[in-house]
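Table S7 (text form). Paired inputs.
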Amino acid sequence: MTENDQDIEQLLTAAGQRRPPPEDMRARVYAHTLAAWEALPARPSRPSQRVPWLALAATVLIGVTAASFWFRAPLNVTPELAEVTFVRGTLHADNGEVASRGRLLEAESVLTTPADGMASIRFRTGARVVLDVSSRVVIGSNAVELTAGRVYVDADGAARLTVVTPEFEVRDIGTQFEVGVGPAGSAWVALREGRVDVQSADQRVSMMARDGVGELARFEGTALARREALTSTDVRWQWQREGRAPLQLDGTSVYEYLHWMARDTGHQLQFASRAVEQRARLEYLQGAGTSDETTMEDALRTARFKLTAAGARGWLVDFL
């Protein structure tokens, strides 16, 4: 093995395994390379002029890999940032055209709900945003610009999402929260879970929820007007349930159903034991309709579970 062969071998080893290119592409590149090599004039068989077989193999491999990346690159272009997942009533997009469920949203997409319309969108990161009636938003990368109405955000472990208003930015840290814009520069932020930082030109307000108790902060322009406690099960949160699609229960695990319902209603979920939690993850609901059509008691009974209250805002799950 020559010194060049050793260098190439070390380079290929360090590069590690790559995804194999399509077989037809491999065959075409190999055939062209072999034909070009065979067309070379015959030369004396001297070590200094012989093409090392390992070097030739490396050339073919590099060519195939480069071609594979060349043809595959366009598939990675994904300009869409979010998707409309639910519409109640009417939803308008961009220049006023009617938008429906399944519409993909790129940067700078505009969504407007009239007085009879609500909608939900889901970002590629997983964050969910509900638009109330008479609202207007502009979609950005992990951000929503709210110019009218109000939105409800449920990040649920997704990448952080920022809501921008004319006067401030609301930056979430793994939360559920609401942002509203009112007349004459008034606005509010309601925190249901986790933490948000409200940043304006001249101040920063941090809000945090603990043990099912968050808060409501009202602003006049950039100035904080007042703050008050707000529980996660307060009736003010119920509006967002009208603007989201219900959960399809058939084929959904009991754990996923309970987690979804707890976030939807603001309850804290507890399991009587580790065994109950594990069983809930493995047990699936069958033929139970949707979360809006079936009561929790009926859905859990079919899977042999029961639910009891655990304090003012908690649920305790146990075997039936």
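Next pair, protein 2 of 2.
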Amino acid sequence: MLTKEKVLGFALDAGFHKSRIASTDSMEKVLSCGQYHAEGRGSFLISALSCYRDEPDDLSKQNNPHGLIAPFARRNYYGEAAGRMKVVFRRIMEKTGLRKRDGRIFCNSRLPEKILASLSGLGFYGKNSLIISPGLGSLFVIAGLYIPVILEPDLIPLKWEEPGSVCGNCTACMEACPVGAIVRPGILEESKCLQYKASRYMSFSDEEKAAWGSKLYGCQICQDVCHHNKNLKYETKISRGDIGPSISLKKILTINLKEIKKMFKDTQMGLSWVSARAIVRNAVIASGNRKEPAMLPYLEEYTGSDDGVLRESAKWAMDKIRE
């Protein structure tokens, strides 16, 4: 017989740091049809895999500045989490006789993963619009599994907490966002968010360029100031898609777009929606904010580009260095 305890044990054995169970029966009482469309009667296993790593954030050297990579993108944690969930499902199939087509694994999908995580008790919605879980902070990825088996949920009855309500009077994330993307507690305006723009090819305003700093990919300023992300200890030791905490800006600016896609293949930055041109734009802007004269010859190559975004960004970056 498959029990909640067995499923949670499978997840723990697979290396997930925290897991919870939510049933479709109990969720229907909380979620409206407009928010959630049930797959049928069954249960969701919702698990967290830490992307925190105790390591240097910047590997820059003299005359060789680097662009910084946000922790969640330094390794392919999403691919790793999905792979570990497959191991969990195989053990469930062995116990129950379920077939592969009976379950659904999801990670970074279109399902309302953060809602499921909140309702299952895995964590709570922070004011920065991310799920925060004690001991893991917000530095983890969510993976889930749906199976057509009713298991006892971890929270009875499920209770919906308004985004940001558990944060109390703390507004550190809202105040720290340099572009004001957190417009209300728990509500993120994507069109303003630097993380949203990191993978999409578009022009940055001068204010956004300055706020971008020396990042190459990923922005987590709102997470850096959150007290829940202090003194974390859970780490996931993996090498899948390992690109490290920073990458040489010179390297990015001296290879073509095809080489960039090849360089990041099978990494978090190699996903289909991450534009290679956006990565080059990020590197150009980061070079300007580094204010390292050694980058001037590399930026000069882009000032004559037919690409307006890169041309304008390179001129801005050179002006910043020359200041």
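The longest strand covers residues 43-50.
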